[in-house]
Write a structure and sequence with these properties.
The chain is mostly helical. It contains 36 helices and no strands. The protein is elongated, with a radius of gyration of 33 Å. The termini are far apart.
Length: 507
Amino acid sequence: MSQRQIIQVFEQYQKARMQFVQTVADLASRPQNIEILHNAGVMSMLRPLMLDVVPSIQQTAALALGRLADHSDDLAEAVVKEDILPQLVHSLSLQNRFYKKAAAYVLRAVAKHSPELSQSVVASGGVDALVLCLEEFDPGVKEAAAWALGYIARHNALLAQSVVDAGAVPLLVMCLLEPELALKRIAASTLSDISKHTPELAQTVVDNGAIAHLAQMILNPDAKLKRQVFSALSQISKHSVSLAELVIEAEIFPAAVACLRDPDEYVKKNVTTLMREVVQHTPELSQVIVNCGGMAAVIDYLGNCSGNLRLPGIMMLGYVAAHSENLAMAVILSKGVPQLALCLSEESDHTMKAATVWSIGQIGHHTPEHARAVATANLLPKLLELYMDASSSEDLQAKCKKALKSILQKCTYLPGLEPLLYDAPSNILKHVVCQFSKVLPHDSKARRLFVTSGGLKKVQEIQAEPGSPLQEHINAINSCFPEEIVRYYSPGYSEVLLERLENYQPA
């Protein structure tokens, strides 16, 4: 065989290898082909091609593996079992930027599925290799590495700590200063994934100067970047008063409030989440958000969105109201109660309803004035209805019961209480009747209305255990009225009168 023929054979072999990996990579991009490729044993065929002498074949083989691993945890597990990760990690430091991006994609695709698979990436030395990639000149390599590190860090504190220990945080903060938007987004996202687990991890992110750089990007026109920036600031703020104060001190408010008018719904949701995380800590931090117009803006926002997007705003109002009478009154004066009533009627998800009920309870439990604001919105019968509905979740029923009891114990607005006389079970009814027994002795107009509306008649029909608190409250109500009126509205009194009529002999 001539030299030329030998060269042709090698060229054909190279061409066949290239054609094979490209075809597999293309097929792997369509989900319907994945299972067939796996069953055909494509993993073991791709493994030797990861070490091919031709760089483009190596890169395409890595791309194909990444697509397969990305599809399911079973296929990611198969990549681990084929012992491909150590090979990838070893090659990361040796190959060109195209290979590095493809290799980082494989590590990300494996890590995303579970903490166990992420741990396999860590055990193979993947984290250290990815951190080295953050020092590369090419922004695409940095982006691929940051993305993979984010998928590792998001699972739990231990994995996030391994990312921190490898020295990723200062390099990720530096990535925020790069001009490429995609790299800024991924860096912010990964810092968010690291910060979310513990105060110590969040503090590490803060100590590397992340807050100042994140704060500078909140008015960036790119919506996807703003989503990640507000997410990271939220994850930092949630852990402690001191971390929330550091975020406030970066002077992101009231500029952040303006982002509640952003066209992107997830920017708005993440801004609201940030405010929720800040206000939960102290009355002082809540007051900062109220003073910069944050609460009023969130109430408006609740009227312009639906579903899960409402949840952080609903909870934010509850946290603000929980701190003090004054802050709860600020929620009321900003028309927060009618907005929460609307959320309660419009949302079908029980988790959403439970959060709304909790916030209503935080507003209404302070004073009679607060309770009246809830009662005049006709929310007490709604809370009772949800409490008694057998289809309501256990958590929703528990929150309704707690909110009802705490609001009822302060409520002196009798028209709001009266509907509950007819439907409430005894454990709620005793609180309703108790409030009537407190108000009626001191209010003659209320006593007259109580008779004409049928309230007194209903009270006489209540079956109460002798000597029980409920019976004592009924006795206290009855003592507010002349004996003959009480008797007149008692069950069976009409029969007594008819009997007397039958036995009556005219003179």
